[in-house]
Design brief:
alpha/beta; Rossmann fold; 2 domains; seven-stranded mixed sheet; globular
Length: 323
């Protein structure tokens, strides 16, 4: 099985494919639910990425998706679903894998935490506990090594206070926020024009659902910022992608998006066509790297756009209606 360095130091598409196929061989034997899923399909061993079977994401709600059935995990991440819904569970056997993944990606796309004040408006994630998003942001806050950084829950005016203090100190400000909390902030018309705003998706039943474009338009106007960034991540994945001003997400080199036909999951759609998002996340070496999400999206070169989702599944980073 590939080690840390091979996964996080991929240099080419050919190298990605080789490692992905090696991990497929490993997981098709050691991840029992994935092994059973592949067996039920009756397909031959894949020889290229396009032939790899993708495990439907709902299996994380109904089964334990892991390659280590007889070893207790270091932590179990739970999705942020409502109290009535069945939550996804992702057993983590090596937290350092997750930390390496999100720290490397954040530094590449957002910057060095030590140069920033990082604020978090993630009340529902904090309240439900065992959130992979909270774990990530908490580590980033610690990496900032600044007392102004922290979780503010619903204290909107504390956001403005710390933002102003950060500007005086010469630090950059990054604000992570669930969609409804950022809308609450935008309605106060607090000028955050020098901050980087990262919405993590999710009205969580607190507000009416909006398309991503509608949400970003409202946030840009209310917060006086030119761009709203998004983070595409979920409980079932150990990697994230961040969006640019065109709402296009760029994955790290160890993560790849492939779009499938919405009516035939074994047929892939061409670049620029809307399809179901399949994710290859090589950081998931201890569970399953090949996940068929319930998001809809399009491939644009080495980036992708999230168009919406199939239904009301509990997916962090995209619970938006089809545009």
């Amino acid at each position: 099985m590939p080690n840390f360095s091979s996964i996080f130091n991929i240099q080419s598409a050919r190298e990605f494919e080789k490692i992905a196929l090696d991990i497929f061989d490993y997981q098709s034997e050691n991840c029992l639910i994935y092994k059973a899923f592949i067996h039920s399909l009756g397909k031959k061993r894949p020889t290229k990425l396009e032939e790899i079977p993708f495990l439907p994401i709902d299996f994380f709600k109904t089964h334990t998706v892991t390659c280590f059935t007889e070893v207790d995990p270091e932590k179990i991440f739970l999705s942020s679903g409502t109290t009535q819904s069945i939550k996804s569970q992702h057993p983590i056997h090596d937290l350092k894998l997750y930390e390496t993944s999100f720290l490397t990606t954040y530094q590449q796309f957002i910057g060095q935490p030590k140069d920033q004040i990082i604020l978090a408006l993630l009340p529902n994630y904090v309240e439900q506990g065992s959130s992979s998003l909270v774990y990530m942001v908490d580590r980033l806050i610690k990496e900032s090594m600044n007392d102004l950084s922290g979780f503010l829950l619903n204290d909107l005016f504390e956001v403005e206070k710390r933002y102003q203090q950060a500007l005086i100190s010469g630090k950059k400000v990054v604000i992570f926020g669930v969609s409804y909390a950022l809308l609450d902030l935008a309605e106060q018309h607090i000028d955050l024009s020098n901050a980087t705003i990262i919405e993590t998706g999710g009205m969580k039943g607190r507000r009416k659902e909006m398309t991503k474009s509608e949400l970003h338009t409202a946030l840009k106007k209310g917060l006086n910022v030119p761009v709203i960034h998004s983070e595409y991540g979920m409980t079932e994945l150990l990697s994230q992608a961040y969006s640019d001003q065109n709402e296009l997400f760029t994955p790290p080199t160890w993560m790849k998006i492939i779009c499938r036909d919405v009516n035939d999951p074994f047929h892939l759609v061409a670049e620029g066509k809307t399809g179901g998002i399949n994710v290859i996340d090589l950081a998931n070496i201890n569970s399953c790297c090949f996940i068929a999400t319930q998001d809809l999206g399009q491939i644009h070169g080495n980036q992708f756009k999230v168009m919406g989702r199939f239904d009301q599944s509990d997916i962090r980073g995209c619970n938006l209606l089809i545009e």
